[in-house]
Write a structure and sequence with these properties.
Length: 441
């Protein structure tokens, strides 16, 4: 599996004995598909807010993890989950009120046409279900996705996740399209250029005789290096897919729940409503719960004709966690916080880029920002080695972050939503120090 800045074992002799022992025990029992972050892996024993702590009490600033959307170990989530676990935890075939209450709240955050929800445990399951529904609804098989997308790890989701690496085959009924790259290409042409590539993909699938079932796009294109602008560039491509009889599936697992600071969902930045939306990771702040939200037109035929049941999907404990997450995002004004603090991060990164030309581009929205590293600012040559060095040097300063993108040269800045202005300043100061240190070597 491809993963930027993964621990490769080359520095294991320099680790302390406790870390070497734990890695040895881990390797003895966990399959080789697992990966650790960083050349010096982090061993957290607890988390609180936007911080993680190791066994020695060292504190780390989390600038990466979107799963604990409202912060690590949030007391309101803990209280709601604990209380529900002590009362009832069963499945959706019994008539329980909490899942109805939550569904009403969740759907109230979507455009009116997106009026039905199905619960799963993981985003991968939600993506898998979305593909099944799209294919059943349209009678076609072909899927369009982006060239470095990540949508999950079930068999069907992995077939549309080329970022899993060269040994993970893309499905035979899948066509990949390049995302807009407004750092290198004309941003005013981004929408039509992307739509042109989608139309070519549609033609390819039609020539193969499989037709177009759906296009699935992560609304911030995070694994493709965070491609956020120009706002609205997806609309012409979606119109082309609809004209060909396909559905648009918006993957909101990473950009959703207010992270982009403008609205609750990333697709809203593009001015056109999806047929299906998949939710996951941050939905339960780490408790496994995910969902598919769709229009009645897109979901009804599948729902009437095919039985779908997920034993743990939408169980009362997971729903309690999900409900608590909505409470905190709403009560603590975390969508606004993402906008304000994200703007502070964006401005600070642009100041650093002006002083350090190896930062070729800064882009993003809210608390989902990318800083792209290049070796030649004129040629805009991707520099994954520089990004990896920055990630590992920040880790040594106890700032946790990662890299992404097709060339693994893009810092992916995606902290928990309570990230504060002071947290942003701490990150920017540490990054400035690392860049200065690197320049002096």
């Amino acid at each position: 599996m491809h993963m930027a800045n993964a621990f490769d074992g080359s520095a294991i002799d320099g680790l302390d004995p406790a870390a070497r022992s734990l890695i040895g025990r881990r390797d003895a029992v966990l399959a080789s598909s697992y990966r650790l972050f960083y050349q010096e892996p982090v061993a957290p024993v607890r988390g609180e807010g936007v911080h993680l702590y190791d066994a020695d009490g060292n504190e780390y600033l989390d600038v990466y993890n979107n799963v604990p959307a409202v912060g690590h170990s949030h007391p309101h989530v803990q209280q709601k989950v604990s209380a529900q676990l002590g009362v009832l935890n069963t499945h959706t075939r019994y008539l329980t009120e909490p899942i109805i209450d939550y569904s009403e709240r969740l759907l109230g955050l979507f455009p009116d046409a997106l009026a039905k929800v199905v619960y799963t445990c993981t985003g991968s399951e939600a993506v898998d279900l979305a593909l099944r529904i799209a294919r059943y609804q349209t009678g076609a098989r072909g899927i369009i996705c982006t060239t470095h997308a990540y949508h999950g790890t079930t068999a069907s989701a992995a077939e549309i996740s080329p970022s899993l690496g060269p040994n993970n085959p893309v499905g035979s009924e899948v066509v990949l399209v390049d995302v807009p790259d407004t750092y290198r290409d004309d941003p005013t042409a981004a929408a039509e250029d992307f739509a042109g590539r989608v139309r070519a993909a549609i033609g390819d699938l039609q020539e193969r005789g499989v037709g177009v079932a759906a296009m699935i796009v992560d609304s911030i294109m995070s694994s493709d290096g965070v491609q956020s602008h120009p706002v609205g560039f997806l609309a012409p491509a979606v119109e082309a897919v609809h004209s060909a009889g396909g559905l648009w599936i918006a993957d909101e697992v990473q950009p959703g729940f207010g992270r982009l600071g403008e609205s609750w969902w990333g697709f809203q930045r593009h001015g056109i409503d999806p047929d299906l939306v998949v939710l996951g990771k941050p939905m339960g702040n780490g408790v496994p719960v995910a969902a598919l939200v769709g229009t009645e037109a897109a979901t009804e035929r599948f729902g009437q004709d095919i039985r779908y049941f997920n034993t743990f999907g939408g169980n009362p404990v997971s729903i309690a966690a999900a409900s608590a997450v909505l409470d905190v995002i709403t009560d603590d004004l975390l969508v606004d916080n993402a906008r304000v603090v994200g703007g502070r991060l964006d401005a600070g990164l642009r100041e650093l880029a002006a002083a350090h030309p190896e930062i070729g581009d800064v882009r993003g929205s809210g608390l989902f920002i990318a800083a792209e590293f290049v070796s030649d600012p004129e040629a805009k040559t991707p520099d994954p080695a520089a990004a990896a060095r920055i990630v590992n040097e920040l880790r040594r300063k106890r700032i946790l972050i990662s890299a992404s993108g097709r060339h693994a040269n893009v810092l992916k800045i995606r902290p928990p939503l309570p990230f504060s202005g002071a947290d942003a300043d701490r990150f920017l100061t540490a990054l400035s120090e690392v860049l200065t240190e690197q320049a002096g070597r």
